[in-house]
Design goal:
Helices cover 38% and strands 15% of the residues. The chain is an alpha/beta fold. It is globular, with a radius of gyration of 21 Å. The model has no long low-confidence stretch (mean pLDDT 95). GO terms for molecular function: histidinol-phosphate transaminase activity; pyridoxal phosphate binding.
Length: 367
């Protein structure tokens, strides 16, 4: 079939979704698999959120609140901003796309790092924009080089902080120094999907920069610390003038009714939130120690996942683990051929991973 497709769309590679757990089990002839590949919250959502979602189902014949009014009011009060500084989306992915749709014309440029969250560059290409990519240095954003890459065509800069997949962060001071080098017309988007897991002493507070000369947008999500990945609800925190333009390109009713109900209830459950953060830090600490005992290197993390240098072919190790019903993420496609990335699981899952890793390391050749 011959279709009138623009080159930027024809050459776009779709985001690679993972196969359903049930399908992987069928393919490999295994049962009882565990998934430690997608940076999900192993504890799951707050019981309050589950109850609120369940209660919302009786109203599925109604459209959701197009303004997310109650969610905006509650979130604004909780984080100390005005509701008109918030834009909600079908996951923070949608807010990324809204920024690109509102502020990037074909042929204009966006700067990102490499490796980073794949969606930035794909969304830019779909818009007809140009990706200018700056490699990480020692697994950190090279803020100096990013600043040097800015030119008259630059419209947006995306910085995931913490970075995915490296789990590293930069400081308030580093970011402030970076902004001093950025022109007024360039929007800097801080993707803070994992900010809840960052140690408080290392946490950059995006609210400090919302009135900066350079327009700064923070992107956050309910998928990680709040455990609502299946509902797809995220938000952007920004100056009200930027929010106004995003609302002009936003689709109506973009956050569904159960998602709004679940997010609103999750915000009120501080006990479950704190339990998630403590559980994650304990899991990272335990897993890191056990991995090191096996002769691998566990990298420090400010997220709910971390990188491991297994000192072997990461793809082969991934396959060896998969045959044991343990799903992790190989990092070959990110330029780290001997690394895997794992998410903190429940204690029994973490123990099973270490047992499976011990076996897998004996099946692959070390480098």
């Amino acid at each position: 079939m011959k279709l009138p497709v623009r080159d930027n769309i024809a050459s776009l590679i779709p985001y690679p979704p993972g196969k359903p757990l049930e399908e992987l089990e069928r393919e490999y002839g295994i049962t009882g698999s565990i998934k430690l590949a997608s940076n999900e919250n192993a504890l799951g959502p707050s019981p309050k959120a589950v109850a609120a979602v369940t209660d919302s189902l009786k109203n599925l014949h109604r459209y959701p609140d197009g303004s997310c009014y109650y969610l905006a009011q509650a979130l604004a009060e909780k984080i100390g901003v005005s509701p008109n500084q918030l834009v909600f989306g079908n996951g923070s992915n949608e807010v990324i796309q809204l920024l690109i749709a509102a502020f990037l014309a074909p042929g204009e440029e966006v700067i990102t790092s490499q490796p980073t969250f794949l969606v930035y560059q794909k969304a830019v290409q779909a818009q007809g924009g140009v990706n200018r990519v700056v490699p990480l240095v020692d697994m950190h954003h090279d803020l100096d080089e990013i600043a040097r890459q800015i030119n008259e065509k630059t419209r947006l800069i995306f910085l995931d902080n913490p970075n995915n997949p490296c789990a590293t962060v930069f400081s308030n001071e580093s970011f402030a120094a970076f902004l001093d080098k950025v022109p007024d017309q360039v929007i800097v988007a801080l993707d803070e999907a994992y900010v809840d897991f960052v140690e408080p002493s290392l946490r950059l507070d995006a609210r400090d920069f919302l009135k900066h000369r350079v327009p700064v947008v923070a992107l956050r999500t309910f998928s990680k610390a709040y455990g609502l990945a299946g509902l797809r609800v995220g938000y952007g925190l920004m100056h009200a003038d930027i929010a106004d333009y995003l609302h002009r390109v936003r689709q109506p009713f973009n956050v569904n009714l159960p998602a709004q109900a679940g997010a609103l209830a999750a915000l009120s459950d501080d006990e479950h939130y704190e339990k998630t953060i403590a559980f994650t830090r304990e899991g990272i600490s335990w897993l890191s120690r056990e991995v090191e005992k096996l002769g691998c290197h566990a990298f420090p993390s400010q997220t709910n996942f971390f990188l491991i240098d297994v000192k072997a072919d990461g793809k082969k190790l991934y396959e060896a683990l998969l045959h044991q019903g343990v799903i992790v993420r190989p990092m070959n496609a990110y330029g780290y051929p001997t690394y895997i990335r794992i998410t903190v699981g429940l204690p029994a899952e973490n123990q099973r991973f270490i047992k499976a890793l011990t076996t897998a390391l004996g099946e692959v050749e070390r480098v």
